[in-house]
Amino acid sequence: MNNSSLGTSSNKDGQFTLNTSSNLVELVITNMGFEKKVLQVQLPLEQELTVALFEKSTAIEEVVVTNYLKDVWKEWGRFFTENLIGIGDFADDCKITNHEVVKFRYDQKAKVLTAIATEPLKIRNNALGYDLVYDMGVFKMDFGTNMFYFEGYAFFKDIGKGKSKFKNNRNDAYQLSMNKFVTSTFNKSWEKDGYIVRKLVKKDNEVRLEARAKYKDILDSVQKKYNGNWKLFYASQNEVSEDQLNTIRKQMGQPEQISYLMGIMKPEEIIEVEDPESNLKRINYQDFLYVIFPAEFEKSRSKLLKKSASQVSELFLVDKEGIIIEKQGAYFPPANWILSGYAVGYSKLAYLLPLDYIPGE
Fold first, then answer.
1. Are residues 147 and 83 in the same domain?
2. pTM for this structure?
3. Based on the domain organization, do 171 and 141 belong to the same domain?
4. Are 327 and 183 in contact, with CB atoms under 8 Å apart?
5. Name one Pfam family in it (predicted).
6. Over the stretch 278-294, which tens digit does the pLDDT of each residue have?
């Protein structure tokens, strides 16, 4: 089961059983020499689940791998680790033990870095007490838009159960996690859990747009009528002075969008559908969620939580069909919910907990 410590192997006939209290799970089925199969399953099953695997084409796989750079871990390894694992705090105690399986490709024209792993990454997290097997599906950094996205399938092995250090660190990671916020949303308990959530509306900056249009017209005129000579342009007309042009340039440098922060919201405002039979809910909303971490963190003995008090993150829905959430904090499809702001740092693998983690244990 993806993002959990729950897994099993089939018998010689391919039959398997996997028990979970979740109502919606993502199963990852693999076998040597076959393509990986990933499917979302709603529980309880109405009938026996049958999964077909297809043979993997090694020829295609070899062609894909050869398109990537070799021996460039020194160049891109730190960037890769910091964006996948994290920086500081728990990330300092988290290590990829087989980084040699990572291959990079950099498109200089598009300014896009892509990475693949020829086999699952093995990660030792000595902060949370887990060995993590991470089957990385996507790692992509677009330096042109400054957008980063990674996706994969995680399986946890608990190596620190019962140790107080791991218990405390896991609790801190959970308090800062998307799982905690999703569970709070499912339970309609933002206020009780200390979250302040407001609606954030972002609109195009009309002043900037008008300034860019004006500057384009002026530049075209200077190039065509005055052969690019700005002094001649200023001397030959009195509609646009040098001071006015400097003002237009400053307006062009304004932010692309203007943000308007609206009132405090309640979970009920974004819960679109509740299905008591499946115990799943669908959330949907326009614009952005402006999420403020609990101010109560300031009173915590944990340095990690203390510095996170009242910090802000934003959540944006890519597809207006919404997100399915369940009580343990899982949400589907994960690629449809874009997180930005403070909490991004705590969405990396160094802070990742299995979905079957029970707070306080």
1. yes
2. 0.82
3. no
4. yes
5. CarbopepD_reg_2
6. 899 999 999 999 999 99
